[in-house]
Amino acid sequence: MGLTDLLRPPVTTGVPPHTPRPYPLPVCRSPRLARLSAALPDNRAVSDFWSEVAARGTPLLEPDGDAVIVTFLWRDPDAAAVILHVNRLTDFRSLDQSMMRRLPGTDVWHLSYRMPPTWRASYGIGPLPAPLVPIHPDQSADKARWRRLRSSALPDPLNRASLRHRADGPALSVVALAGAPPQRWFAARPGVARGRVGRHQVGDRTVWSYLPPGAGHRDLPVVVLLDGDVWGGQGLLGATVDNLIAAGRIPPIVVLMVDCAAVPARSRDLTCNPAFAGFLAGDLLAWAAARWPVTSDPAATVVAGQSLGGLAAAYTALCAPDRFGAVLSQSGSYWFPGGDVREWLTGRYAAIERLPLRWYLEVGAREWDLVEPTRRLRDVLLGRGYPVTYAEFDGGHDVACWRGGLGDGLIAVLGNIRQS
């Protein structure tokens, strides 16, 4: 088999497997809600409860042995039903497990899960004007209905931590328990010099650039980061890189954040597309080199992405190891292409001799479709002798988790690079 044949992916629609959640949700009862229920019908107990919650913030957290009872709350006297959308807990096949309960005779809607103290997730809450019609046992789950419900979900008004998964997506709230991995780098810090983020057109693509603070730089390492509308368009990346540079954890770098558009173009480009890989390795890096003092050394050039972007990053490095020397992949879609042919890219790396690539791989332990394929890729890479930094976090397919892991990944693949 020639190299061209080796790198040619199978024809696919790029549709992920979406297997059902393999475990029931850990629904439980909150002791605080039990006390409130016992105090009814005292209306003052309800108003005192909401005053307490407003002061503490939501969700309500109650220790329970080696776990935490996490109680999500919604105040609404008029809703007919309320659905809780939590990243990788809510499953469109079993929405009944995500319906909030109403405390009778009150405006208190609640739902409690018993979670390990390492958990982090984004979530939204969706009040409904009518009860959700259950799916008949003979019917297949309606994913389109779930997407419509999720798109209209609202952030938790009593939770001050929020984000968006995409620039045009809904605002979401974030819950992070005390033992969740610390996200040391993503928040802006006073006194830290800030780089510049700009927006450009490279051909028909939007690209955001991050340029480091200071002057007189030479041979700057380069990171090509996919889904640039998330990282550059929303400003989620700049403070992370500022902080890492200021702390001396990475050298000054240039980041090229490539907008990967919407479905179906995103699925086409990111599912092991040779033309897109060629654009990243060729036109994009040449465009950057014509403007800024960036390196041509592949050892100091990284390709990075999340989800399908993680898959595309690993494929691009396979196609162009002469341009990219490191892969940073978060929750990569290594199930690709699914169906009768699975984990195709892992098979490509198993079939060839080791390339000069360093790896940072991470995946959420709650990503039941992704965690095993990612582990298998890790094992293939280690077996071939690749340097691999591997991490699993207690969370899902979630920017709330990736924004912290991105800083850790940059340290892993660039921490030993020194600017000339």
Helix content: 25-40%
Shape: globular
- Helix run count: 12
CATH class of the largest domain: Alpha Beta
Secondary-structure class: alpha/beta
Computed over alpha carbons, the radius of gyration is: 23 Å
Q: Kindly report the CATH topology of the largest domain.
A: Rossmann fold
Strand count, sense and closure of the main sheet? 8 strands, mixed
The topology string of helices and strands comes to HEHHEEEEEEHEEEEEHHEHHEHEHEHEH
Give the strand order of the largest sheet, numbering strands 1, 2, ... along the chain: 10-11-13-12-14-15-16-17
Q: If you average the pLDDT, what whole number results?
A: 92
CATH H-level homologous superfamily name of the largest domain:
Alpha/Beta hydrolase fold, catalytic domain
Low-confidence stretches: none
| Architecture (CATH level 2) name of the largest domain | 3-Layer(aba) Sandwich
Describe the structure in your own words:
It contains twelve helices and 17 strands. The chain starts with a helix and ends in a 6-residue tail after the last helix. It is globular. It has about 425 residues and is an alpha/beta fold. The chain folds into two domains: about 25-175, Sandwich (Immunoglobulin-like); about 180-415, Rossmann fold. It has helices at about 5, 30-40, 45-55, 145-150, 230, 240-245, 265-270, 275-290, 310-320, 345-350, 370-385, 400-415, and strands at about 25-30, 60-65, 65-75, 80-85, 100, 110-115, 120-130, 160-165, 170-175, 195-200, 205-210, 220-225, 255-260, 300-305, 325-330, 360-365, 390-395. The relative contact order is 0.13. The strands form three sheets. An eight-stranded mixed sheet has the order 10-11-13-12-14-15-16-17, sandwiched between helices.
